Amino acid sequence: MDFFDIIKEGTGEGFADSLFKVQDSDGKLLTLRGEVTTQIARMLASRARDETRLFYITNCVKYIDSDASGQREYWQAGAELIGGDAASSDAEVIALALSILDSIGLKAAQIDVGSVGLFRYVLDYFGISDFEGVIRAVKRKSVDDLRGISMNPRALEMFTYMISRRGGIEVIDKLSEMADGDLGGQKGYFRKLFRLLDAYGCAGRVKIDLGTLREMKYYNGIIFEIFLGGIGTPLGGGGRYDAMMKEFGLEESRATGFAISVDTCIRALESCNFSFNSKEKPLGIFFLEGYEEAAIALANRLRAGGKGCYVSAYNGEREGVLVSEGVLDLSTGKEMQLGGMGGR
Question: What GO molecular-function term can you cite, just one (predicted)?
Fold first, then answer.
């Protein structure tokens, strides 16, 4: 639970309106946790820590469901990297997100990358002040809405290109040509980002789609969303939020991170016929008096190899293994040659 005004300032009105709110005895408006990043930024500010790596797995609650799953309570797994070079840190968290999904079997996941910083540069380049209007138009991919903001033909050409193209570093190269410059350092940033993603071995799974935007207000640099074919909603997403760190007093601090929807990942695995309930029973490791330590040592060895097991005193069981002077397979009555289990 946190103060609503603080969460609203960090995430923006759209997200804040979807949160459950309560009033405390002093009349202050509080909200149940709907996301984690804002709370992490506050925690770091209160402890004066400006460089660290954090991870979390926690539940969040929203009044309005954002992914049409019907869930108001949902679980997130995420990581935050505070400090470091922008491109290096962003590459690290993108690679980490993909490696996590690989480890649970979602190896076909891909990432689309956008940039709030790049949009702000283009707005400044053409002297356009209606940032929120442009963002709304980009989310709708509406050229007509963009015309209502600016009739400058070059600006419309660039914005149309930004919301319609998806690809690799060539997207940034072309945009740089259209702007006659390095895009305020963005060109060099994206070149370094993709060079490092290539070093991590995942550049081929990352595409630049400048129409990629997220609902959180605190993003001020790169933004990304994680997709998997056949799943209608993103598996997760993240981005850079240096500006929010400054709001909490960490003026020189940089921050980037991501969150993965545990619930969406479970639905994705179920769609691949993944079985969450192993039919293999845990192995019973039983012991006679004086051999409990040996039974525990055997259980530790088997668990390290991925075998489920439990330890219990022997009470006439006919399945499992019995640890005494040796190790006996109770179902066959044969001695097992495991070595090193010893006796008393």
Answer: histidine-tRNA ligase activity
How far is it, in rounded angstroms, from Cα 6 to Cα 24?
15
- 131-139 LR contacts (CB < 8 Å, sep 24+): 134/159, 135/213, 138/162, 138/163, 138/210, 138/211, 138/213, 139/211, 139/213
80 is in an annotated binding site: yes
Q: Is 36 annotated as a binding residue?
A: yes
| 76 carries a ligand binding annotation | yes
Amino acid at 302: L
331-336-341 Cα angle (round to 5): 125
3-state helix, strand, coil in the chain (%, to 5): 40, 20, 40
Paired with 209 in beta bridges are: 166
pTM equals 0.71
Residue by residue, DSSP assigns 210-244 as TT---S-TT--SEEEEEE-TT-SS-SEEEEE-HHH
Flag whether 280 is marked binding.
no
Query: In angstroms, what is the C-alpha Rg of the chain?
Result: 26
DSSP 209: E
* Residue 219 is labelled as binding a ligand: yes
Q: Rounded to whole angstroms, how far apart are CA atoms 119 and 135?
A: 8
| Dist. CA 214–CA 221, nearest whole Å | 12
DSSP-assigned letter for residue 154: H
